[in-house]
Design goal:
about 400 residues; alpha+beta; 4-stranded antiparallel β-sheet; about 50% helix; globular
Length: about 400
């Protein structure tokens, strides 16, 4: 705990919390208000931490929709608790991380989801043509506190630190002014939760390594690659037993032994290239559907936003999407998506102009022929059909480049 409370560690924790921003907890304090609060209250907080008596605040419940349907429950700690959790993480992370499996990629420095996807691709191209794809049922909500604390106690001797972590796990969840006690789970939303998840699941990683299995894990997503369906069924049975030992449950409806190209990993899937090329990564169908839904939302024609605002929103979303899915080797699919996005923005332009006379005048000003402009203007309420006609002359690809809408296929 003395290391947690060192000045340099605290300064780094404050810098990280301010950079991550995030919403306020149950006390309403914002990240911007945190520095002044600490100036006044840190001596008392430090004394409580060193004495082992610090009591975290309850977390604020926040629900967000999941891309595959349903919702994910987050527990948002106060900014003071996020600051203290971050300070603890910076001390424990370097002590735990070196001992984790090299095939664990989630929430670890120098590792990413892309590394996991590339490693999975190697496994399949090495001849492992089946995957044991395991989904844990509400993992972060089902973490057993006693099991987790037992794993932590093997590496942490400071009872004060163990006590604070336990109280973070048990902090109640406040919803509409009503507090719900928590006896299991580590709420997503605090800086410590990812490390605690890796501490708990590392036991499964080590057993898979001991048995020589080829696998990748990212948080609670674990895929094991094998050479036959029979071997896959044996590994599935092993994983059920290992997770049961941690008091976790496998979601049977979402878990399977199957061909890798039929499953998804962190938003990616695989397809077979030409002879001799092996498997290549692509965007998984569900991830592609989610992306198109988001673009539809941004470009819907009932949205009262200027084209410049729509373009800015598209740029903000698509830059991040493209960066994440840059491993996908599907230039034709990306080119089709580019054309579809341009189609939607052209339709939005026509909707903004509304009347045929305005459409005709604007299209003529942008270089469309009299006949072409008249043809589009004559169907002034058929925005989607019109945007697929000749108006690419008025709105060429260079126009969208000038708006700042990124090309996915570039």
């Amino acid at each position: 705990m003395e290391h947690v409370c060192q000045r340099a560690n605290l300064q780094a924790a404050l810098k990280r919390v301010r950079k991550n921003k995030g919403s306020a907890g149950i006390d309403g304090m914002t990240v911007g208000e945190l520095p002044e609060h600490l100036k006044a209250h840190w001596p008392a907080l430090r004394e409580q931490l060193l004495a082992g008596t610090y009591q975290p605040s309850q977390v604020r419940r926040q629900v967000i929709p999941k891309s595959g349907g349903g919702v994910r429950e987050l527990g948002i700690p106060t900014v003071v608790d996020r600051f203290i959790q971050q300070a603890i993480l910076q001390v424990l992370g370097p002590r735990f991380d070196p001992a984790f499996s090299q095939y664990s990629y989630g929430f670890r420095p120098g590792r990413s989801a892309h590394d996991a996807v590339v490693q999975a691709q190697r496994y399949v191209n090495d001849g492992r043509r089946f995957v044991v794809d395991v989904d844990l049922e509400k993992f972060f909500d089902r973490v057993n506190h006693d099991v987790l604390m037992g794993r932590l106690a093997k590496r942490i001797e400071d009872k004060r630190l163990l006590g604070v972590i336990r109280r973070y796990l048990e902090a109640g969840i406040m919803t509409n002014g009503v507090t719900r006690e928590r006896h299991e789970g580590t709420p997503q939303g605090g800086p410590l939760s990812p490390l605690l998840a890796n501490v708990l699941l590392d036991e499964v990683d080590k057993e898979l390594e001991t048995r020589g299995h080829a696998f990748v894990r990212y948080a609670d997503d674990c895929n094991v690659y094998v050479r036959s369906r029979r071997a896959g069924e044996r590994v599935m049975g092993l994983l059920r037993r290992l997770y049961a030992g941690l008091r976790l449950r496998v979601n049977e409806a979402k878990s399977a032994v199957d061909r890798p190209q039929n499953r998804k990993l962190l938003g990616y899937s695989f397809y077979w290239g030409r002879r001799g090329e092996g498997v290549k990564p692509k965007v998984a169908p569900k991830a592609l559907d989610a992306m198109k839904d988001r673009v539809r939302e941004i470009t819907r024609r009932t949205r009262s936003q200027s084209i410049a605002r729509v373009a800015a929103d598209l740029r903000s979303y698509l830059v991040g999407w493209k960066n994440y899915f840059h491993l996908a080797m599907t230039p034709r699919i990306f080119a089709d998506l580019d054309a579809w996005i341009r189609h939607r923005v052209r339709a939005l332009h026509l909707k903004h102009w509304r009347r045929g006379t305005t459409i005709y005048r604007e299209l003529r000003a942008r270089g469309l022929s009299e006949r072409g402009a008249a043809r589009v203007a004559a169907n002034d309420r058929r925005w989607w059909k019109n945007s697929a006609m000749l108006i690419n002359v008025a709105f060429p690809i260079q126009y969208f480049d000038q708006l700042g809408i990124p090309r996915l296929a570039a």
